[in-house]
Write a structure and sequence with these properties.
2 domains; 6-stranded mixed β-sheet; Rossmann fold; globular; alpha/beta; about 300 residues; 6-stranded parallel β-sheet
Length: about 300
Amino acid sequence: MAFITDVAGLRSAADADGWRGVGDAVRDRPCAHASLITPSRPSEYRGALQARADAHDDLVIAASFLLTDAVIDAARANPGTRFVLVDPLVAPPGLRNLAVLSFREDQAAYLAGALAGMATRSGVVAGVYGPDGATDQAHRLGFEHGARYARPNVRVLGAYQPASEGAPYANPEWGAEQARAFIAQGADVIFGAGGTTGQGALVAVAQAGRSCIGSGTSEGSAAGCLLTSTVTYIDRAVGATIIDAAAGRWSGGIQPLGLAERAVGLAPFQRPLPDDVRSRLQQITDQLAAGKLTTGA
């Protein structure tokens, strides 16, 4: 494999993770060359992808869900070029020359729920989520199933951000208010997912002196409550896809990536955990990776 191009949708942490994965994959391959393109506006996405197909790149990576429509068009128009789409919100149609990296965030949320079930002292845990989309449902189902598996008698509360509550994934005030409502009902461990909506919940939990679990990047103002966060390892997934393609193991279509592929998990713990909790979390991780547990999603 000689030429790889990463087309970023915006200058975000996810884009940076994808580009890091490209760099890791080509570092020890002297014949491989990688380039990064960052279009300044969505109207440029299609042209950027087509330009790389015209240049006969071996692999073109669409590093953001924002490029979903553009990469589908480009893949259909250029069946001889292989494309990779990272973590779209909606699964695209199956195309042989388009690999879609889909992350098992439900498995990471299941681990978060299991930790919450083991960490709660009140016997009540809760989750604050985005507006009931597919990812939000995966977060909620995974968290609730994990909590009940770890502690069958636990009470699990949860709420999706209503359509009436402002921009999706971007209402920290509502997230904070919902977290305070759950705390009033006895919740002492709260999972905050759903962008800044979830981050607002974590801030309220920190202010109340309870424990929290984040999703992805968590705000520093919530650090006082943080046990850990769910993590998606985009760099690992992109790097592994490049290595597989270079070795002739190309596969188009949707590729669900989870614990077995080391593509999701929990971030390093922010507080010391008892050895028995760590041991049980590892057992649950191994069971999920082996398919011996299901998340409900």
